[in-house]
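Technical annex B. To support the medicinal chemistry partners, we prepared a structural model of the target in complex with fe (ii) ion, based solely on the information shown next.
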Amino acid sequence: MKKDIKSVEYGLEKIFEGAKDFLPLLGTDYVELYVGNAKQAAHYYKTAFGFESYAYKGLETGSKDTVSYVLKQGKIRLVLTSPLNSKHPINDHLRKHGDGVKVIALWVEDARSAWEETTKRGAKSYFEPRVEKDEYGEVVRSGIYTYGETVHVFVERKNYNGVFMPGFVEWKSDYNPPTAGFKYVDHMVGNVGWGEMNQWVEWYEKVMGFVNFLSFDDKQIHTEYSALMSKVMSNGNGRIKFPINEPAKAKKKSQIEEYLDFYEGQGVQHIAVATDDIIKTVQRLKDYGVEFLPPPPQAYYDMIPERLGEHMKMMKEDIKELQKLSILVDADEEGYLLQIFTKPLQDRPTLFIEIIQRMGAKGFGAGNFKALFESIEREQARRGTL
Ligand code: FE2
């Protein structure tokens, strides 16, 4: 584990020092979910998670077939899209997958070059570079497919001064629930099928120039009943991190397999959002009805000082308070992190949100996996899908 963290740095440094990064990424631009009822979903994400109204397109703006609500919190832009008639192809996506992430959009300097460089290396095109214009300038976008029906859209907005992008209008609302303190997308995790993790690791290396900087096998991520494997991919500057999970064989059904069954394919498992004050964030979310995975047992909290070792000295949070809110703690050689996971955000046990506060640690909570998975399994057992 320690060695892995070191190799991260070497991996990333190599990219900086070596050949020019052929796909420079400035950050996550937006995350788009296809949902059954965007209007109601927007209300839920505003109320429960503290997103603010940002931009809109629909019948009133001349969009006859689809409606999209754009919500914002910190640097995170969440787009919720629904079809407005039975013939639109988004219906096929919804029928198969239910509500879920369709687009992980990445902010780039040059969307034409991003499309050319990735398709040249084997990416399947979602759409060719296209320019959208309005009175505020132009946005260039292009797209490629990744795992399942999920896509990456490259967004070039350096010549645009409007609210979100052409086609959208500013969305002002009288209803503005308090923020939850989300800052940015820390990482987004994809679940892929049996035996397919390495294939997607290679795809991100070859097609997008990412490096694999952390790996966890089923010996590290398992409980008595279920197991999974995970490899974390990062782009050159470390702003984009995509862990890729695949199920592993164990006594009972892996939570990844449960996801694949209910999403009916590969897709985004969770969006991890960063906060500076997880206690405040989680308290706010709980006050507005967000449900989290049940807490680990008392023994987990008793062992925190031992697990954190010297990082205990820099820990500002009170363990009792963390326990009260079921927040998890993990450490690596560089620091510690605090994290918590919501229950699935829709009726199918598929997409959920992670809240993470990094206090120096660069990992993903590997030390919590066992406690966490036992908690997930208790939920799986309740659903009869373990
Ligand atoms: Fe995560």
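Notes passed to the chemistry partners:
Residues 1-10 have pLDDT under 50 and may be disordered.
The chain has two domains: 2-17+180-383, 25-170.
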